Amino acid sequence: MNVTQRHFVDDMGQQMVSWGLARTTGRIYAYLLLQSAPVSLDQIARDLQVAKSGASVSTRHLLGFGLARSSGEVGTRRLRYAANYDLETVLAARTKQLQDFIDRLQEGAASEPKRQMRHMTAALEAAMAEIARAARHGDALARRGEKGKRT
Known about the structure:
By secondary structure, the protein is mainly alpha-helical. It has two domains: about 5-85, Arc Repressor Mutant, subunit A, CATH 1.10.10; about 85-150. About 75% of the residues lie in helices and about 10% in strands. It has helices at about 5-20, 25-35, 40-50, 50-65, 85-110, 115-150, and strands spanning about 40, 70, 80-85. Strands 1-3-2 form a three-stranded antiparallel beta sheet. A hairpin with a 6-residue loop joins β2 and β3 (about 80-85). α1 crosses α2, α2 packs across α4 and α3 crosses α4. The longest helix has about 35 residues, at about 115-150.
């Protein structure tokens, strides 16, 4: 990697920390964004100078967040990893996690007589609906833009 790419990788690591993720996870995500083909854990660990075990944990987090995808290496049990560029898939994964969070809050609100928790849960549900609507609207705009480019 050149100096600019290393800077990007390190900056993304710091950005992910602000999201509550490990710095290594952010660095690996940035690294995957820069790759033209899927890469192995060995290559990730070597190029970023991180432990292979840490790279493994971070790639699993990225898979869970929908930010990366894995594919099998022909003839082996090894996996290769690539950044997920499909915004719809990324948003779907994040939306599911948020919905799971809201479901847990609703379970707590059902057992808690305080109105504050029910109010917060209702506000989160409304926000989720707005996010989903905006994502659908953005997806429709992107599709219209792609049609315009093809003609």
